[in-house]
Batch of 4 targets.
Target 1
Amino acid sequence: MELDRRHLVHLSTVARHQSVTQAAQELGITQPALSRSIQEIERILGLRCFDRLAQGVVPTSACRVLLERAGSLLGDFEKLERDAQQLAGSFAGSLTVGLGPVISAGSTILEVAVLIARHPKLEIRIVVESASELLRRLQSYELDFFVGDQSLMQDSRASFEL
């Protein structure tokens, strides 16, 4: 068996939560099924991906290297799916939008509601966090975009291409 998109999603979700149980809940699968998937990934790659601790799991140094590439690949895959849907004339799939706390109270919510009404097959997830957390999530491909404090973006341009 070869590594596939599902494996990359499982790997990145476990790493983000640092808990197989919490990751399984997010993914909508059982904890034993996710544990078997992680074991399968480790077998395919020939390396240990997580150090198992009493309070959860942490990615090994080798896994952290793989997670960087996995995040990029998953982001590219989602873009490919969206492009195909757009070419087919419909938007479907998921869109994760980050909003800063002040922004979330404004008109952006209304704009998202209009987007939902126009594209009922599009699943939209809204994340309200601090601007620094939204930037971290954008850089790790957990967000498609965010609306937040512009000064944070100016300070971060050196480390993140816009």
Note: The first strand starts at residue 50 and ends at 53.
Target 2
Amino acid sequence: MPDCSLGLDFGTEAVRALLVDLNGRERASVALKYKHGQITDTLPGSSKKLPTHSAFQHPTDWIDGAARATRRALKEAGITAEQVVGIGVDFTSCTMLPALADGKPLCLIKGLEQQPYAWPKLWKHHGAQDQADRITALAKKRKEPWIDRYGGEIGLEWFFPKMLETLEKAPKVYDAAEVWLEAGDWFVWQLTGLPAEKLPRSTCQAGYKGMWSGEAGFPSTAFFKALDKRMANVVRDKMPGKLFAPGQRVGGLSRTMARKFGLAEGTAVSAAIIDAHAGLIGAGVSGAGTMVMVMGTSSCHMLNA
């Protein structure tokens, strides 16, 4: 049996572990539903109704589900841990969360577990329309050059509208957050066990849903200050880490996670990628001019130019 790569695909309802050998043949595929599913009505352990348009997930579902799916896939494929040469991660986006500098999600901290905005916001969380509209209006008023990259409109599912929503509706949660990041980046961070200042952020997620570009970086301090003075230094103060392209090695699997997943310590881990973007590559499209329709809970039209 040739060596294999492990792909972990995090969707809206379930996680899938996929083993593909280095000849491109699928050797195993195991999908497991999240224990808590989509959290849209009430938080775990609560009977209080969530605000309209809320959609959250439980971060332990990502780790536990992926570990169980990986162990089953290894057994199904009949390979050893040492035969897995690398791990790739794709995730729904923008699914994002606030955490402490040690990586602990705020929703797992005593006293914050019943605060909705301490929980990871699923991509389909639609509570930040007002914030998205104001970011768009301010960018147009200031003639920010980056607004044109997105067709002149910032989406309500994106990173900074959701962050601003938390700042305005739950400022104590915003203040408690030491790190804001996409769930795909959080998961890769947990796999590697790197310190916060070195946590790997994906240019794919940042470039699309985080208003970042390789040429200009994130929007300026002046823009964020004009949006809300409390966010003036948000990138510096609450978004540590380094940016990596999808597929680029960011570190090795930590001993703790190797034991949990049944894999070898030090196995290469790559930067995350948005799930639909991975679908385009998985369809074999690498050149310009071919559109791929990636259909799941949502539908994405992907075109290389």
Note: The first strand starts at residue 4 and ends at 10.
Target 3
Amino acid sequence: QKEQIAGLESRVEQFRGQNLKLDQSNRILIIFNSIVGVLLLITLIWFLRNIGRKKGKKPLTGTTPKPNGTGASSEVGFEKLDQKLVQLERLSKLKEHGALTNEEFQQHKQQVLGNSK
């Protein structure tokens, strides 16, 4: 009987050890999930703020009438200018990040501005 009790006690100790390991891993998972949740919440807030900022900006495409009364051609001119500005901004970002050399940047800039060489 003493052997059975000793055997049961050793099995109980094994289960306690396994239970402590599970408890520690559960704590680690809870901490990790909490950190991930906070980061996701911060990212969501940042994303929603940026969407609000983009919606608040008005595009440069206006219908300013020319003296002869043709507002449509003025709008097309603004759209083309706006597209060129966007392309130039992209080129400058590529240059800043090192994706374009200065010579490549100048060449592409001239193409955007319509001064192809």
Note: The two ends are 100 Å apart (CA to CA).
Target 4
Amino acid sequence: ALRDRITATHDESIEEDQVDVTITLHDGSVHHLFVEHAIGSIHKPLTDEMLDAKFHSLCDGVIGVEKATALRQTARSLGGLESLADLLRHAAAR
């Protein structure tokens, strides 16, 4: 039901990492939000802690916390690996 009440438009004047949202409620009140740079953009990159949290939110339920932690740690040391075998072993589903 909510989807039928939404009108999305594309605004060529804003950058791809920006958002400009206006919401009009049934009582006529209007709420507006402009985000100059989205989190994760080149201008507002994710911190290591934010990346870790996002990674675990996507992986823990699929491969488990222990394997996800090992995968994250192995991926962080990718440049020093002799083989991708360890990385692939950690990435396999439970």
Note: Residues 46 and 54 are 10 Å apart (CA to CA).
